[in-house]
Amino acid sequence: MDRELQAVVELFRAYAQRQILVVTGAGISLASGIPTFRGSDAGAIWKKDVTELGSFRYFSRDPVGSWRWYLARFEKTAEAKPNPAHTALVALERWCQRQGGEFLLVTQNIDGLHRAAGSQNLIEVHGRADRIRCPRHGCKNGAPAGSLDRAGFDLGKFAAEPSPDTLPRCPCCQAVLRQHVLWFDEYYDSHRDYQWPRVLGAAATADAVLFVGTSFSVGVTDLILNAALERHRPIVSIDPAGAAPAPDVVMLRSRAEAILPAACARLGAALARTTAGT
Q1: Do the bridges between strand 208-212 and strand 19-24 make them parallel or antiparallel, or are there none, so unpaired?
Q2: For residues 180 and 112, is the Cβ–Cβ distance under 8 A?
Q3: CA pair distance 261, 256, nearest whole angstrom
């Protein structure tokens, strides 16, 4: 791993006083027990028809089925804890700040593990599993800016007896609530929480980009990758099983939970305890 480790260390040393953009995907949370979408792991969600189930169209047609699918999917998310890759990125963020540079983390994950680990300069561009919202645009609990804490709703009745009568409803307008996530038939600018203008700005100005555990199969990775390639910015991707999305991308096959803490040790970036106590 030493050659690959040095590639990560050199990236941070060279751009510590400039702007480093880190983009994470489902692969970074695999060590926390959360299956990927398109990965090679046995539980990869992409092996199911997620493009149909993860859509506003499906929710509108079958809200009971949509909620059942998400509750089953979120079972592992609720119990998951940050792994060493998450905590290492917190340490790298703080290290970059001490060097006088800028560090921004854009995650495609909705599991909240970066927040639990302590990441501060964070964009959860695909939404959050711990929030739900009204599907009606303009409702104070819906787009463009509203959402609700999932923990404030008793979903036990629905889990025990899934039916239209037990679905959670908006306290304001009584519409059936939806997940606070970006669905496949929606747009990044559909809710302010996705912080899409900020992502566009970072893609246009980042001096170096590090991808971790992403398959380069969604719009945000395509945007950031192409922006970096067009501006001839250095790009490193950590993914044990992924294929290089472009010849100029430096692909590292080490596991993120191993190489990122090792990079912290080389840089003298102290690993911090997470807010979740891990």
Answers
A1: parallel
A2: no
A3: 8
Q: Write down the number of H helices and E strands in the chain.
A: 10, 9
Tell me, which fold does domain 1-34+82-126+191-278 have in CATH?
Rossmann fold (3.40.50)
Domain ranges of the chain: 1-34+82-126+191-278, 41-79+130-181
Q: For residue range 182-212, what is the model confidence (pLDDT) as tens digits?
A: 999 999 999 999 999 999 999 999 999 999 9
Give the C-alpha separation, 158 to 27, whole Å. 31
For 163-178, b/e burial (b = at least 16 CB within 10 A) is: eeebbbebeeeebbbb
Q: How far apart are CA 25 and CA 199, in angstroms?
A: 15
41-79+130-181: what fold? SIR2/SIRT2 'Small Domain' (3.30.1600)
In order, the DSSP letters of 102-120 are: EEEEEE---S-HHHHHT--
pTM score, whole prediction = 0.92
d(CA 22, CA 33): 22
Which residues form the catalytic set? 126
In angstroms and rounded to an integer, the radius of gyration of the C-alpha atoms of the chain is 19
pLDDT tens per residue, range 12-26: 999 999 999 999 999
In a 10 Å sphere around its CB, with 0-12 CB exposed, 13-18 middle and 19+ buried, how is residue 203 labelled? Answer: buried
